[in-house]
Amino acid sequence: MTDIEHLEELILPEVKALGFDLVRIAWLGSGDDLALQIMAERPETGQLVIEDCAALSRRISEKFDELDPIEEAYRLEVSSPGIDRPLTRLSDFADWVGHEARIVLGEPLKDRKKLRGTIASVVGEEIIFEDRKFGDFKFSYNIVDNAKLLLTDRLIAASAPLTSDGADVVEHDDKEE
């Protein structure tokens, strides 16, 4: 499989050219069902609409058609990180302080590698996390293996679109028959 760091060198300029931030590049699946997943977001909203995904997909496809950096068969998947988004950068933790998350650490801390609770704060490179069952944890961002926000009512409210442009409009006929 082609190295993610090499692909990031090719993908990041295309993401930036459209004014987006790169959230994650990952290989998903295996064999005949291999997908290159690219998550990006608009910095002002933390989201991408379908037209943004299509534009980024076209740019990356054109670049990859030109350079052919991937030997194996794969499918390109471009998406917004979604509401219960992965936390892939230190800034993600800072942006989502006060929200619930699931974190897997690369090394045990207080005999725990899996945490579930609330992001309390971020100080420098340190994350302060309140685990539901095991109390407070303080750890360096560099030991986070993976992390993801948990879907809650508070997160849904915080992730509401800034605009409803493009949303389906439902019209009701209020006439009595």
Could you please describe the fold and organization of this structure?
The protein has 177 residues and is an alpha+beta fold. It is built from 4 helices and 8 strands; from the N terminus they run αββαβαβββββα. A 5-stranded antiparallel beta sheet has the order 7-6-5-4-8. Strand 1 (21-28) and strand 2 form a beta hairpin. The protein is globular and about 50 Å long.
Strand order of the largest sheet: 7-6-5-4-8
Please, what is the average pLDDT? 91
Please describe the biggest sheet, giving its number of strands, its sense, and whether it closes into a barrel: 5 strands, antiparallel
Radius of gyration: 19 Å
Shape: globular
Tally the helices: what do you get? 4
Q: What are the main properties of this structure?
A:
alpha+beta, 8 strands, three-stranded mixed beta sheet, 4 helices
Summarize the structure.
By secondary structure, the chain is an alpha+beta fold. The chain has helices at 4-17, 50-67, 90-95, 153-158, and strands at 21-28, 35-41, 75-79, 100-109, 112-123, 126-131, 135-140, 144-149. The strands form two sheets. A five-stranded antiparallel β-sheet has the order 7-6-5-4-8. A three-stranded mixed β-sheet has the order 1-2-3.
